[in-house]
């Protein structure tokens, strides 16, 4: 079935008819602003659940074939304005970043106008062996994930201005996401946003200014025209209904614009002698990048300028002698090279040259002069995209009267699917007498030397050989130290830790064996809280899937994060049929995350897909530890892309953006140690046991199998998924739309408590139910602060306090349900019975 939709005659815009009037009349959409807006923009309808309308640029060269000199000229002019704004010195230190896919060519053109700066564009095409230097999300797009893959990571690490180029500046969300991601990695003083049209509302404009103040940087805006889109209430639903109705009408037999099979015989203008396809050898300069996917420098630009006349002459020589109207058709992100070839061809030949590119974006086609997308060619993707096969589109090509079409693709896209009977070349051949193909070599950066390390790290440990969890539930990026004696009496460990004689990760506490009364309390707590935990699991998992990655790699921070990671994996399986990879790694306060575990993850997965998972936040120490450790890892290894944002089940400390709840309640997995964590100890990092090329260590307590409730806990919570699913999804949707910025309320409370109780080390203050429980089980507790009126969530804490002779003090305005205080300045002779810190 041919997918050339709404074919019609040669369709230039008719005088007096705006190519947005069809949508404006039916949906009530209006453009308000500069007089130039309707010259620059038309309107169409998209098949997109996030936004009904599409602003169609007449000068971008994406959806509407346009003179290449007009397309290039708009970008160059914007670049000259940026140079005037910055001055030559700052322009020389700047980097231009264009957005995939629509603004890759525009970004290049702005860089050409700037004249002194290198250019980079984001990409949706991963490159094997090249770790991303950053990335961001485009919230309204149909394909959101952008990667930044510079050949030289230093391209983004300078402190000069960053010039961000997009075709339109609508809400500012994409720019904010970009700056937020890059500023955290490579802070700089100045950003310049460049767009053909600035269509923000007043509220969105104010938001960008507020964000600039927040990060302490200057943000300027340069646009060819400005205005706003006025959208009536219900426009998204009305637009979706209009798209569905029009597509249904078009599918009726005999209806105008019905999709029809491509002609199998000769083209009406074919005399029977033309070849099926003419392939043009451009003689593309050796090792010249095909675009800015990996960076394009002023030196590259000079080489391209020198080669363009010869390449344009080769294209001109291959054109039919009588060709009067020629289209140069680029390929998705490959916009700049085809644009410059088209511009050079325009100067070389007498034919009327137009330029546009294929695209991923699905848009409704309507054969009406008041609609921007008159025709649509549909064909399969032909570059083996990372997100799988799918449809691709070329708009306003069919019926446009082109005597020849020059398709320009990179070598990655020159595949059998390109040449297939339903491929792009066959679709074009149905609508033009001559199709020519020019292939630009895909540039592949030379691999960067990696720091010296062993060629292969061991595979993850799995149950039942290591842990009581099923092998598919989690892979432990740890080494097995089960045969090493690491346990020391709690009091002995505490004195060594506080005296500075040992780090807490160099030994293990003796595993607490719960009394029968305490085990009964655990099971009672599990029964009453399973649904509450299941809902929080659903909320955090849905948030991760919507905001972080559609197929995340869950990486739990062992060991408290491991049961939560397994539950999140089970939720994704239950609700979405996803089989997500899940690993557990070690992170040690003051020592950082296991770098060898990160290397293993980077070798087997895209770091951008990794989501670190923990059980709960206390005061946020591990949140800070992870962020610092990942920054150091990027500097040492040159591997980027790991996001320091932790996803947690409970965030009572308000330390993270991704959480299931911010309530401080009893999570039964905090009640026990290894017997609710797969029989695995806390992690160990000791120089005589863990070498520079080893994973951190842990023990498997096989001998405790008789009291193991690890799977019991998981099964009790996951059994409640069906009953909480709708509520969890609704809550996640609300959270995604809410302001979830961390307030670090917990950290402030800890500092206040530390000062009030004379404790000079905030590490001895453990806020929240989970952390307090750990104090009771592993450390030497001094006292427990309990929020006045706290109920059954503290039953197990009160029982442990009674067993260990620890006072429980009720506090009126505690932001947590409870706070555990480790005995300050601990020696085995200290008592602290007067409620004051012990000094020695």
From TrEMBL:
Q: A single GO molecular function, which one?
A: glycosyltransferase activity
Orotate phosphoribosyltransferase-like domain boundaries: 40-227
Segments for region (Disordered): 247-277
Limits of the Cysteine protease StiP N-terminal domain: 467-717
TRSP domain location: 290-426
| Extent of Basic and acidic residues compositional bias | 267-277
Transferase found in the keyword field: yes
User: What are the record keywords, sorted?
Assistant: Glycosyltransferase, Transferase
Domain annotation PELOTA RNA-binding: ranges: 744-823
The UniProt entry, under InterPro entries, shows: PELOTA_dom (IPR028157), PRTase-like (IPR029057), PRTase_2 (IPR041688), PRTase_dom (IPR000836), StiP_N (IPR011215), TRSP_dom (IPR022537)
Q: Which domain of life is it from?
A: Bacteria
Q: Could you identify this protein by its name?
A: Phosphoribosyltransferase
Which species expresses this protein natively?
A: Streptomyces olindensis
């Amino acid at each position: 079935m041919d997918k050339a939709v709404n074919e019609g005659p040669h369709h230039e815009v008719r005088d007096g008819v705006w190519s947005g009037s069809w949508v404006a009349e039916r949906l009530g959409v209006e453009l308000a602003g500069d007089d130039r807006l309707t010259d620059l923009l038309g309107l169409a309808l998209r098949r997109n659940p996030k936004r009904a309308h599409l602003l169609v640029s007449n000068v971008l060269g994406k959806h509407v074939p346009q003179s290449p000199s007009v397309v290039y000229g708009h970008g160059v002019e914007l670049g000259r304005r940026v140079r005037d704004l910055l001055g030559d010195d700052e322009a020389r230190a700047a980097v231009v970043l264009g957005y995939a896919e629509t603004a890759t060519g525009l970004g290049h053109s702005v860089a050409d106008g700037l004249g002194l700066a290198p250019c980079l564009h984001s990409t949706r095409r991963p490159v094997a062996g090249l770790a991303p230097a950053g990335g961001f999300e485009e919230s309204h797009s149909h394909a959101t994930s952008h990667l930044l893959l510079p050949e030289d990571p230093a391209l983004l690490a300078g402190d000069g201005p960053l010039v961000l180029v997009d075709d339109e500046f609508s809400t500012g969300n994409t720019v904010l996401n970009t700056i937020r991601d890059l500023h955290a990695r490579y802070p700089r003083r100045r950003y310049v946003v460049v767009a053909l049209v600035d269509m923000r509302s007043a509220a969105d404009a104010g938001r960008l200014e507020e964000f600039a103040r927040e990060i302490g940087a200057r943000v300027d805006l340069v646009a060819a025209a400005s205005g706003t889109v006025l959208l009536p209430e219900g426009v998204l639903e009305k637009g979706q209904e209009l798209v569905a109705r029009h597509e249904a009408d078009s599918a009726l037999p005999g209806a105008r614009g019905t999709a029809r099979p491509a002609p199998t015989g000769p083209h009406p203008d074919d005399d029977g002698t033309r070849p099926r396809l003419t392939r043009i050898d451009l003689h593309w300069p050796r090792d010249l990048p095909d675009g800015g996917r990996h960076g394009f420098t002023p030196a590259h630009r000079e080489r391209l300028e020198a080669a363009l006349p010869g390449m344009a002459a080769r294209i001109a020589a291959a054109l039919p002698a009588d060709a009067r109207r020629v289209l140069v058709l680029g390929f998705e992100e490959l916009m700049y090279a085809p644009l410059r070839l088209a511009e050079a061809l325009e100067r070389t030949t007498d034919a009327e040259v137009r330029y546009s590119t294929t695209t991923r974006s699905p848009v409704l086609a309507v054969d009406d002069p008041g609609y921007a997308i008159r025709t649509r060619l549909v064909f399969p993707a032909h570059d083996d995209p990372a997100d799988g096969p799918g449809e691709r589109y070329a708009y306003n090509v069919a019926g446009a009267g082109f005597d020849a079409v020059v398709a320009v693709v990179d070598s990655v896209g020159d595949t059998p699917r390109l040449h297939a009977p339903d491929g792009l070349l066959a679709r074009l051949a149905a609508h033009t007498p001559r199709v020519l193909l020019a292939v630009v070599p895909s540039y592949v950066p030379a691999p960067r030397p990696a720091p010296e390390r062993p060629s292969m790290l061991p595979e993850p440990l799995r149950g039942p050989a290591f842990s009581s969890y099923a092998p598919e539930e989690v892979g432990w990026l740890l080494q097995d130290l089960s045969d090493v004696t690491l346990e020391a009496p709690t009091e002995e460990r505490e004195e060594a830790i506080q005296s500075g004689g040992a780090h807490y990760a160099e030994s293990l506490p003796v595993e607490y064996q719960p009394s029968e009364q305490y085990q009964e309390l655990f099971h009672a707590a599990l029964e009453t809280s399973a649904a509450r935990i299941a809902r929080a699991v659903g909320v955090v998992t849905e948030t991760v899937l919507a905001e972080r990655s559609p197929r995340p790699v869950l990486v739990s921070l062992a060991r408290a994060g491991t049961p939560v990671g397994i539950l999140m994996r089970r939720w994704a399986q239950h609700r979405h049929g996803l089989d997500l990879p899940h690993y557990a790694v070690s992170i040690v306060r003051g020592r950082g995350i296991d770098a060898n575990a990160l290397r293993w993850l980077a070798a087997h997965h895209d770091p951008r897909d990794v989501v670190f998972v923990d059980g709960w936040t206390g005061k946020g120490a591990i949140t800070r530890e992870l962020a610092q450790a990942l920054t150091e890892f990027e500097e040492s290894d040159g591997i980027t892309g790991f996001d320091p944002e932790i996803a947690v089940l409970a965030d009572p400390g308000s330390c993270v953006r991704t959480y299931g709840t911010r309530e401080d309640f009893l999570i039964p997995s905090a009640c026990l140690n290894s017997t609710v964590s797969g029989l695995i100890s806390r992690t160990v990092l000791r120089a005589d046991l863990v070498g520079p090329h080893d994973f951190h260590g842990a023990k498997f307590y096989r001998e405790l199998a008789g009291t193991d409730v690890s799977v019991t806990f998981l099964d009790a919570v996951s059994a409640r998924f069906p009953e909480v699913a709708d509520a969890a999804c609704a809550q996640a949707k609300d959270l995604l739309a809410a302001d979830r910025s961390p307030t670090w309320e917990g950290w402030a409370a800890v500092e206040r408590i530390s000062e009030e109780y004379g404790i000079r080390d905030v590490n001895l203050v453990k806020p929240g139910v989970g952390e307090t429980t750990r104090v009771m089980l592993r450390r030497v507790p001094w006292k427990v602060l309990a929020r006045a009126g706290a109920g059954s969530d503290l039953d197990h804490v009160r029982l442990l306090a009674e067993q260990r002779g620890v006072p429980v003090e009720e506090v009126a305005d505690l932001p947590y349900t409870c706070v555990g205080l480790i005995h300050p300045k601990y020696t085995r002779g200290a008592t602290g019975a007067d409620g004051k810190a012990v000094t020695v």
